[in-house]
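Annual report, structural modelling task.

Input specification for the fe (iii) ion complex:
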Amino acid sequence: MRVIPVACLKDNYAYLLAGDGGDAIVIDPSEAPPVQAALQREQLSLRAIWVTHHHFDHVGGIEDLCAALGAMPVLGSQYDLEQRRVPRQTRGLREGDALELFGQPVSILEIPGHTLGAIAYIVAGCAFSGDTLFVAGCGRVFEGTMAMMQASLAKLRALPADTALYCGHEYTVANLRFAAAIEPESSAVQERAQWAAALHERGEPSVPSKLADELRCNPFLRWDADAVIAAARARGAADSTPASVFGALRSAKDTF
Ligand code: ZN
Ligand code: FE
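The model returned the following structure:
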């Protein structure tokens, strides 16, 4: 299986997942034209659309893709299906549902917090995390609670360390500025910031990121690191529990 990132809108990623036979699916098509251009360039036929959550910058291309290429399966969470907030959605997914793509098992994680219907797709050692886990950061908590979001990030953190993370936005350079403010002594964060700046200068994506690197550098996965706990306490965390530490960091990032 090949993963082809497709830059969309200002800083979004859609992803084409391609099998050997020329078939592909797309995750989070925020707009159709760049997805169609990538399909053409790679000589792929689109067979299905998968979405991580209902926000417009993840589903905005569904209508145009179906109009141009014909109706096809549109997968999203069961919650979003019940809310009828993903265009043309045909199937609602729950955690534990068995799915297959190009002969490989796909697992679904329910990761509420950014939205209540957010899910991640795990396939072939890759995690598609939408706006829940970003490279060096995480999404804003719009619909859920801080505790809910922290529990969702804990699910992603528990994946194998060599998992390749593909997220919904290219926010990496800015995320690492915040990471450096939280852990100014961390050489891992400083090296990672240099890596991200070099990619940014060349106009290259920072996805995929290895989960192992996120564990070292992403403050939103480091609620049990002493330096992060101290930084969170200094920013108003009431105690050192993961939810409080995470919540204080997330609130601080909202106004950073
Ligand atoms: Zn979103
Ligand atoms: Fe988004």
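The chain is about 40% helix and 25% strand.
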